[in-house]
Amino acid sequence: MYINKKGEFIIENYQKGKTFSSFLSGIAGKFGIPMWVFYVNRGQGIASFGIENKDNAILEFLPANKSYQTVQLKGFRTFIKYIDENASIKIYEPFRGISPGIKSRMIITPYSLKIEEVNQEEQLAIEVKYFVLPGEDFPSLVRRLVVKNLVDEPRKIEILDGLPEIIPYGLSNIALKEVSQTMSAWCRVYNLENKMPFYRIKASTDDSPEVRKLEKGHFYLAFTDEETILTPLVDPQIIFGEDTAFLFPDKFLNIKLAGYQKNQLGENRFPSAMAACEVNLEGGSSVTINSLFGHVSTEDKLDKIKNKVVTSSYLDEKERECQLIHQEITDTIFTKSNYPVFDYYCRQTYLDNILRGGFPVNISNIKKKTIHYIYSRKHGDLERDYNFFHLEASYYSQGNGNYRDINQNRRCDNFFNVDLEDYNIKVFANLIQADGFNPLVIKGTRYFLEEEALAKICKYVRPEDEKIFKEKLKEPFTPGELLSFILDYKIKLDIGLDEFIEKVAHSASSMIDAEFGEGYWVDHWTYLLDLIETYLAIYPDRLRELLLEDKSYYFHDSYMRIKPRSEKYLLTDQGPRQLDSIEEVIDKRKLIEARETLPYCLRTENGKGEIYRNNLLVKLLTLVTNKVSSLDPYGIAIEMEANKPGWYDALNGLPGIFGSSTPETMELKRLVDFLLEKIDDIGQDFILNIPVELLEFIEGIRELISIWMDKRNNYQYWDKASTLRERYREKVFYGFSGKEEDFSVFDLKDYLKNISQKLEYAFGQVAVTGYNLYSTYYYHIPIEYEETGEYSEEGYPYIRINKFEQVILPPFLEGQVRAMKILDKDSIRELHEMVKKSELFDSKLKMYRLNGDLSGMPDDIGRARAFTPGWLENGSIWLHMEYKYLLELIKKGLYEEFFQAMKDCLIPFQDPEIYGRSILENSSFIMSSSNPDTDNHGRGYVARLSGSTAEFLNIWIVMAFGTNPFKIGKGKLIFKPEPVLKGDFFTTGVEEVEIYLAGKLEKFLIPENAFACCLFGKTLIVYHNPARKDTYNTKIEGFKLTMDTGEVETINRCELDNLYAESIRDGRVKKIDIYLS
Q1: Among residues 865, 868, 849, 847, which one has the least CA distance to residue 857?
Q2: Domains of the chain (ranges plus CATH)?
Q3: pLDDT for res 124
Q4: What pTM does this model have?
């Protein structure tokens, strides 16, 4: 395994290596339709693919372990028939045999997958390349097969290629898994006479009175480079006969299938999608078979597609387009260092980050910017077979995701797109509810047009289409849905699609489409401050506007009610438990669903009035008050009171046994201290207007903290604070009254200072553990309780708990990471040394384990106890948390410690033979040496879409620019980057590069002793370091600015202020040369 000069990852003899799964990005461009495409390093690679989700497979979705077993039979197959020197008919199948005479390799790029095989015995070379078709109104996987004759003499061969089984459109994943025999009765193939079969079921399969006819379907098209369309073979029996396992094409051995003219059965069985061609290959020559496997909304589109794609240059141009789309995306993080593997890793990590968090595009620049995220999807794949991913099958495609994941993956986006400004802060702050929690599932952004705006937009629609257009736009829509509607119904516009979308986006209002999901995690809110800090690292001059002046923030509304303790503390057969903590309230759901616009925004007048809006500071104050009231009975950690744990999902049992989490205590301390600092920066000249319900809650907590400071009675504080929280939630469940009262800066600061003191005490208790590390999780055993006389629906008595006994779980890396956020540099250095001496450090791998030994814990804590140590979420190297640990090292100034850990832990610096897959791609976890499977220690599992990408991007930003490249100095905006780079990261030679800047391909010369990177996707920054010193031991001597107008200016200072800084921030500087001493 190695990386070539193009940045391609090469795996020689890939079928002999450790198994792994991965995927194509699926990106097809803004005006293209994505596909999901998964591959493994067995057979011909592709294991499954389709559109939208698992329920729309073209090649059936199977989990990784089953894909490894089946891909060689049910995946793509190629059979080459010829007459050998003994006049015998012989069939050779490439990518099946493994012998000394066969050499194969897999070539992985950000946009494509290629496999090659050279068979010296057969004297044939085979190449297959896959990529997703970009820039079309239909999705398709492109497969290009090249067969080359390696001898000088001509030879006659017949090639059979394609899928032995394809899934007709309309069959769900569950149907394929459980009733596939029955479902075969619905399977149909249409349009065979036009050599472009159309696969769908005949009608809906539901056992109901309503029978629906399907219009959509999958298609298959195969043709040679000579533009000859091949006859499709849709009946697997004419190929394999009675060999239903598809082991060998018995029929092909004895009959010619190229140009097959006999009848084929295209119903009552799962069809195939194969084609054959017969060729005379001259010595050294080759033949290419191009195949498209795709989807269309109606059968009548097939002829148009066929006429368009079957040309000699079409697929060459589309492959180049696909490559450039991916290059433009990844040039956003262009990096040129002395380590090419690091540079390519930056690209791949940025690409994978947007696949989960989305890629921001500005779809309207008329007076205001309209940001829309595209390309995202939930992290589901062959190894994450439990997640239901969704890619919108439309232009401007967006997908689903979880609040926590998307929030973290977008943390650093301001550094890559200057148009974003406070967009993401608003998105995620607005999703916070009045109870301090948030919905789990983020389904993307939808738009809606008020009546007046709709009338304006209809001016661009031809009169004959206006009625149907208005009907469509009565409901919220995505840009993709709108464009699909326009194309499918052939709506005529007076302007182009791009311009039309821009005008719609300008006139429309937007809403985040979110759903409750399955519970409330205790950590989700903690990532909001990360977004705020990123924003202020670029816009420090907008602090007052961010926290105070913008009063457009609202609260998300929900019909899910968090029960009070009296309705969730139960005495079960296993003992006291906290169960079923959340319930749906039907009346509230009806109230929300009856609203015509923005239904999930909290209203005044107890839910029947206007949307309640206020500033970000009030929202953060609401969060702080809810969370400080949620400290556990020992006053240390935040309770898991709503069915779900925190970041560490595998402790799913902790909420049931009264679990609590210190990471959120530490994050609350960080947030409170941040607010105290920023309030001082803003000044004392403001008053908050806050809902009376919140003020009453605040005053109650304020009084309780005062009492606690005198008595230090943690149980009493917990009991009374919980009661206050329960009363507050009851009052605001349907909405605020709408009444507000003033809250002065003096009262605000006094309140926050008291909370900070209480949290300081809590943090001090966290540090006192038997492990010499910060404790992370607890559970609490009720030792004194009484029945209330009430019973649950299951017959369990409700209880009132009067006393708990605390149990501390073994150490977790998360606790140390979160503590580092609020510790000083010297304390972090001490902690780092303690971690390296503890069981959290894997001395064999020199990496950081997720947690210590859980064997002494009860099974009740969650699924982590079921996993073998070193596997999944039990003592493995969980890349996301390990990278969080590295991030805190560099952010807090432990540079030497960081670079040592970086070389040990960062994926591009791993041995690929041990890692077992591309070292340009992250994994969710690495098997640690705690696992008994010694052969696989250090091997990566579960591909790519990990939160580790967000942490690495944050690390990259600190390395490239420092934590706060824009500052306020003497009342002025200043640009003063402070890169954190070791001397060996600077180049040792000169190289010309061609990259996208502001959407244009530009050439630049990167000199020796330089480090180059991109800022905002618009500015190339080149650090010059002739002495090759570590940059944290150097100073800036001067700048040379090349403006986007071509003007060049040289400034011999260590920082840039005012207009220069603003020009950089606005993306009006093409290149900055920075000279280090």
Answers
A1: 865
A2: 2-327 (2.70.98.40), 410-444+512-766+777-807 (no CATH), 450-500 (no CATH), 811-955 (1.50.10.10), 965-1076 (no CATH)
A3: 96
A4: 0.97
